[in-house]
């Protein structure tokens, strides 16, 4: 299976199990610059309490263990995105600027 297909499967898995608002791939895969050692950066936007983001990140990582590719999962709330999407020093900024939406409610 090609890595692009695996990324799409990961997004579908997240969508079916965690009901996110959006799943966005960002970083080198979104820019078309991914190489053989590139990880997959996914931003998952969920309606959850800010203090539950870490728990959700752990649950998503567990679910995606079956996909044997290096990955970085970032969980954010809609409020995080609204508050920090223009803050260049956060991960949200590049994710929202260059990211590709894989799933959206």
From TrEMBL:
Q: Which residues form a coiled coil?
A: none
One MF term in the entry's GO annotations = nucleotidyltransferase activity
Matching entries from Pfam families are given as: NTP_transf_2
All residue ranges annotated as the Polymerase nucleotidyl transferase domain in the record: 11-83
InterPro entries with a match to the protein in the record: NT_sf, Polymerase_NTP_transf_dom
The cross-references to SUPFAM superfamilies, in alphabetical order and at most eight, read: Nucleotidyltransferase (SSF81301)
Q: Which residue ranges does UniProt annotate as crossing the membrane?
A: none
Protein name, UniProt field: DNA polymerase beta domain protein region
């Amino acid at each position: 299976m090609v890595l692009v297909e695996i990324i799409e499967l990961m997004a579908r898995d997240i969508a079916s199990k965690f009901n996110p608002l959006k799943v966005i791939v960002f970083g080198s895969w979104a820019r078309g610059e991914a190489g053989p050692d590139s990880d997959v950066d996914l931003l998952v936007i969920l309606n959850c309490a800010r203090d539950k983001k870490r728990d959700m990140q752990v649950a998503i990582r567990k679910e995606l263990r079956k996909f044997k590719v290096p990955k970085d999962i970032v969980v954010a709330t809609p409020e995080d995105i609204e508050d920090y999407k223009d803050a260049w020093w956060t991960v949200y900024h590049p994710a929202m600027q260059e990211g590709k939406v894989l799933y959206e409610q």
